[in-house]
Design a protein that fits this description.
By secondary structure, this protein is mainly alpha-helical. It is 70% helix and 0% strand. The longest helix has 32 residues. The relative contact order is 0.17.
Length: 215
C-alpha cells in the first residue's frame, strides 16, 4: 500500500510565506545588476566549477533520468516491497515536470532578457512572446526543477531539509554565476518549484484516495 504524502496545511502561514517570497523577488530585482558585477570578480576556476554543476543538473538530463528511475521502480516493485522509494521518485518526477511546464509558460509570458546577452545589464528589459531563448530568463527553469526535487525529498525525509536546502542553493546559484540568469530569476524558480511540488503532492494524494475508493 502506497503511503500518502504528508503536507503542511493550507493556512495563513503558507500564504504569508508566498507573499514574503514574492516581495523578496521584487527587492532582489533592484540588486540583480550588482550581483552580476560582483560575480564577475570571481576567479575563472570558480566559474568553471559552477559551469560543470549547471550542465549536470540541466532539466534535459534530470527529467529523463527520473523517468528511467520511475520505469525501473515499477518493474522492481513486482518483486520487492519498495513503496516508499517508488513514491518519492514519482513525486520528484511529477513535480519536476510540472515545475518545468510552469517555468516555460512564465518565460514566454514575461520575456525577460538574460544577463549574458545584455551588455548594459538592464534587468528590466521585457519582450513577451519573443520566441527567442535570449528573452526567457524569468523564472529559472533549472532552479524550479531542482528546488521541486529538493522539496520532494524534504517532504519525505524531514531530517534532510537542511542538507537539501543547502544543495538546492548551491546548484541554483550556479545559474547566476555562469550569467544565465539574474538572482531574482533563481528566487522565482524556487517559488515555482515549491508550488509545483505542493500541487503534485495534492494530485498524487487524490489519486491514492481515488484508488482506495475503487477497491
Amino acid at each position: 500500500m502506497f503511503q500518502k504524502i504528508s503536507l503542511p496545511k493550507l493556512n495563513l502561514s503558507i500564504f504569508a510565506s508566498i507573499v514574503c517570497a514574492t516581495f523578496l523577488i521584487l527587492i532582489a530585482i533592484l540588486f540583480d545588476k550588482d550581483a552580476i558585477l560582483f560575480i564577475r570578480k570571481f576567479p575563472p576556476e570558480i566559474r568553471t566549477l559552477f559551469e560543470t554543476s549547471t550542465m549536470l543538473t540541466d532539466p534535459a538530463l534530470i527529467i529523463p533520468l527520473l523517468s528511467c528511475m520511475e520505469i525501473a521502480s515499477v518493474l522492481v516493485v513486482k518483486y520487492r516491497k519498495l513503496e516508499r522509494p517508488i513514491m518519492i521518485i514519482r513525486l520528484c518526477l511529477s513535480s519536476a515536470v510540472l515545475a518545468l511546464a510552469f517555468s516555460l509558460i512564465f518565460k514566454a509570458l514575461i520575456g525577460r532578457a538574460r544577463p549574458q546577452f545584455d551588455s548594459e545589464l538592464n534587468p528590466f528589459i521585457l519582450i513577451p512572446f519573443s520566441g527567442s531563448h535570449l528573452y526567457e530568463s524569468l523564472p529559472s527553469a533549472q532552479a524550479a526543477t531542482i528546488s521541486a526535487i529538493c522539496c520532494c525529498i524534504a517532504l519525505r525525509f524531514p531530517s534532510s531539509r537542511l542538507f537539501v536546502a543547502s544543495l538546492a542553493f548551491l546548484i541554483t546559484l550556479s545559474r547566476v554565476i555562469v550569467e544565465r540568469h539574474w538572482l531574482s530569476d533563481v528566487l522565482a524558480g524556487w517559488i515555482v518549484g515549491g508550488v509545483a511540488t505542493f500541487i503534485s503532492a495534492l494530485l498524487l494524494n487524490s489519486l491514492l484516495d481515488f484508488g482506495k475508493r475503487q477497491r
